[in-house]
Amino acid sequence: MADGRVNPGSPLESHGIAAHQKIAEESTRAAALPGEAGERTEEAHLAMPAPTFWPMIFAFGVALMLAGLVTDWAVSAVGFVIFVRAAFGWWHNVIPVEAHHAMEIDLQRRPAPILVEARSVVRLQAGEGRHRVRVPEKIHPYSAGVWGGLIGAAVMAGLACLYGLIAEHSIWYPVNLLAGVVIPSMAHATTAQLRAYDGLAFFAALIGHVTISMLVGVLYAVMLPMFPKYAPLWGGILMPLLWSGLIATTLSILNPAMNERINWPWFVACQLGFGIVGGYVIARSTSISTMQSWDFAERAFVEAPGLRPPREDEPQ
Questions:
Q1: How many distinct structural domains can be found in the chain?
Q2: Do 143 and 264 fall within a single domain?
Q3: Same domain for 171 and 256?
Q4: pTM, 2 dp
Q5: Could you tell me if residue 229 is inside a domain?
Q6: What is the pLDDT of residues 163-191, one digit of tens each?
Q7: Are residues 165 and 292 in the same domain?
Q8: In terms of CB atoms within 10 Å, which of 93, 148, 223, 268 comes out highest?
Q9: How confident is the model at residue 130 (pLDDT cuts 50, 70, 90)?
Q10: Could you give the CA distance from residue 290 to residue 168 in angstroms, rounded to a whole number?
Q11: Reduced 3-state DSSP string for the chain
């Protein structure tokens, strides 16, 4: 050992190997215990607060004192005595020495060690990395909703007139039925009167149909960007079905006579035609980005060429 090295096979080398093995075994055993290094333990019992009956007696004394307010003072007196005795008994379970109960621990069913995750979460800001704080990120202009509503209204009117020609041999039958929503006298008209042309009914039906169609088209333009996938399909099928159910429910109450004359399968088909065509037209329109992804200069409408690249929907 003249050069500082241990000779192979010497007692000193054997002692060093045994010490290293013992340290490795202790490290392995400690790593198998749950919790952090300061929380790991091999104790077979866990100290828990000792059970006591004094809280129930304490509550019983309080109940007697309150009951004495509506019965007799003697009941309150007895309750006060029980209250004081339970308070002292409960006090002595904690002070000066807290009573504990040793709960046995199953050493074979210890929980797995808690692993600490060292990674951190990076929070994106509005507009950073195309991060979307609010949905949708892009919307359709209201003008697209107006045009989609008008085109859907034309398809709906064509289907309604087709029903009139097939079922009643007159295109004015569905027009007069629609006018009956605002003209109550049309609900009591005969079938011959509904098949004939009526200038007032035509004007009322035209104004009502165009107005409602444009409003529903604007509603579609607002709602379609919120659908995650297949917006024209869901908007063109789901919404007309809900709308038809709402009309069928309310019309049976507001105007039962008109409700009996409507062919509901054809009515639903007309609504689906409006929803599918109008939704498709709106979905194919140009989308504009919402202001949540704009920087301060854009939101303030400051013209600063060269400070920012133009957006996709911004003219070059």
A1: 2
A2: yes
A3: yes
A4: 0.51
A5: yes
A6: 989 988 889 988 888 887 778 777 778 88
A7: yes
A8: 148
A9: low
A10: 49
A11: CCCCCCCCCCHHHHHHHHHHHHHHHHHHHHHCCCCCCCCCCCCCEEEEECCCCHHHHHHHHHHHHHHCCCCCHHHHHHHHHHHHHHHHHHHHCCCCCCCEEEEECCHHHCCCCCCCCCCCCCCCCCCHHHCCCCCCCEECCHHHHHHHHHHHHHHHHHHHHHHHHHHHCCCHHHHHHHHCCCCHHHHHCCHHHHHCCCHHHHHHHHHHHHHHHHHHHHHHHHHHHHCCCCHHHHHHHHHHHHHHHHHHHHHHHHCHHHHHHCCHHHHHHHHHHHHHHHHHHHHCCCCEECHHHCCHHHHCCCCCCCCCCCCCCCCC
Q: Is residue 23 part of a domain?
A: no
| Cβ atoms of 141 and 286 closer than 8 Å | yes
Query: Residues 268, 176, 146, CA angle at the centre, nearest 5°?
Result: 60
Structural domain that includes position 92: 44-102
Report which residue type is found at 297: A
15 pLDDT higher than 50 = no
Nearest to 148 by CA among 95, 79, 220: 220
The pairing of strands 45-49 and 100-104 is antiparallel
Q: Cα(284)–Cα(49) distance, rounded to whole angstroms?
A: 69
Q: Model confidence over 113-122: pLDDT tens digits?
A: 677 777 777 7
Residue 9, phi-psi category: left (phi > 0), alpha (psi -120 to 50), beta (remainder): left
Judge if 98 and 233 occupy the same domain.
no
Kindly state the percentage of the chain with pLDDT values over 70.
70
Domain membership flag for residue 124: no
CA atoms lying within 13 Å on the CB side of residue 9: 0
Residue 67 falls inside a structural domain: yes
CB neighbour list of residue 164: distance below 8 Å, 6 or more residues apart? 170, 171, 172, 173, 174, 175
Distances (CA, A) of 106 to 48, 102, 143, 291: 15, 13, 71, 60
